[in-house]
Amino acid sequence: MPYPPERVWAFLVSREGVEIWLGPGAELPRERGVAYETASGTTGEIRSFHEGERIRLTWRPKDWDHDSTMQVTVSGTGQKATLRFHQEWLSGPEERAGQRAYWKDVTERVVAALAER
């Protein structure tokens, strides 16, 4: 992304950014072990929060029978940032494909929102 990593991070942890990637209605806890829930029923808890760099959390949509683990990272220097969404413990190829499409859409929405700011 053609933005400083600090700007991308600040957006991701803002209310607007959290609504895009975590879900509407969610407050993003910044302490390990603190739970969250989105308006759509996705639940989880923070596993780690490294300011300016990485968030690791469990992620379970209301219609899933298992947790997955999400990691969101921002890296880069100067005017170039890399944003990564990495999800583990998915149930199989179909769920992986669905989540890959979901995170691609999320990334596009984050890029569009940053361009508007």
Number of helices: 3
Low-confidence stretches: none
Label the CATH architecture: 2-Layer Sandwich
Characterize the largest beta sheet: strand count, sense, and whether it forms a barrel: 5 strands, antiparallel
- Provide the CATH superfamily: START domain
Which structural category fits the helices and strands?
alpha+beta
Beta strand %: 25-35%
> According to CATH, what is the class?
Alpha Beta
Tally of strands: 5
Order the strands across the largest sheet as they lie in space.
1-2-3-4-5
Task: Supply the number of structural domains.
Answer: 1
- Categorize the overall geometry: globular
Mean pLDDT level: 96
Family: Belongs to the AHA1 family.
Pfam family, one: AHSA1
Organism: Amycolatopsis samaneae
Protein name: SRPBCC domain-containing protein
